[in-house]
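Example record

The entry below shows one chain as it appears in the dataset: sequence first, then structure tokens.
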Amino acid sequence: MVGPIISLVFIAIVARLLLRKYNPQAVLLLAGLFMLGLANALGFAPLELAKPTGSTFLDLFAAIQESFSKTNAGVGLMIMAIGGFVAYTDKIGASNVLVHYAMKPLIIFKSRPYVAASLVIPIGQVLFVAIPSAAGLGLLLMASLYPILTNLGVSRVSAVSVITASTVFGIGPACATTASAIEILNMDAIIYFLKYQIPLVWPLSLFMMVIYFFVNRHYDKKMPDDKKATTVVSKEQPLAPAIYALLPILPIVLLMVFSDLFQFFNTPIVLDTTTVMFISFFVALAFEAIRHRDFSAVTQSFGIFWTGMANIFKSVVTLIITADIFAKGLIGLGFIDGLLFISTESGMGAIGLGMVMALMIFLASMLMGSGNAAFFAFGPLVPDMATKIGLSTTAMLLPMQLAASMGRAVSPVSGVLIATAEIAGLTSMDIVKRNIIPLFGTLVFLLITHFLL
């Protein structure tokens, strides 16, 4: 048990450093390298490399090179392509148009403000599939929807709480954690989305709607009137043409049409996520060319796509790579074997261990303020663990992925909470306090429905 105990010490140190806002990539990478070095010094499982250097010390740096090569050739390129497309659709106003039209039905419930607020969650969740940036979607909804909710009589805290709640389930082919999950599972993105994510997420969204309705109404009644006043005035911005609302959802449509799940053609045509993102980008370019009739400006806009890819490499892909080294360090020190030993001795079994891992990644996401960082760090541990306890990798990985994105919405250091709270004149802790009951209740509901029913 020496190795697993050392692993827990490193996890605690990493959590502490991340809470103090140290760079997550640096923390994960250094912690992973230290753990790999200790594992080698203590005689645990040796580091396995495709091309060892011949020196155990230099192998640590070779592991970084291999992780870069593997990630950039696969899931890294996929996520960068997604990031480039999302940046482009946001720049040309397509995301704004989609949000604008999707939220119009809420006006019907102007006499039922808390019903309207709760309906933001499922509508926002659908939007989050097409606009897979929690902070990005949150800001779009703050610009377009927040003034509507507050004018209906919903408090500032309640309005921001449901807006952030619409980003708690990171699902769909364009989501970074989904891209990581299908890489781990070696599964088609659409099959994972339609057969596994949606059947689990839709009852969770309905359950969360109900909890938010009662929690927000209850706490708003106790809130002083001065706390209910809105401090934000909506500024109408000119929208792109209505047809642009189709662009953010185009990748999902293409992936469904050209997937293994549907056979619409005599000769099967299957497109992967990366290819679909490039196709969708060129379709968006064509829209812009027709709209502006300026070939020079359209060619210049390629830079938006490349910049979006570069930003995702800097923030997300490097996080995947460093988290991979961190996960290798945990494996090297016997963290998985330790968890399996504890689960066996305590009588938890496969279901108990699956619940513990989902809860652990929820707490990790709260600490880090990033569902991506938490999932990238612990997701790669799942295949070996699931095989040893007799549980399918998908059954164990899916609730962990959802728990990771849920934990982000109750983290005072997460980007989406900080950004939306700032606009509303609140603190991120105000939103955490309002989100904690609905999201912890939803987490319990997730574990019960997934593992016990």
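Notes for this example: The two ends are 34 Å apart (CA to CA). DSSP finds 23 helices and no strands in the chain.
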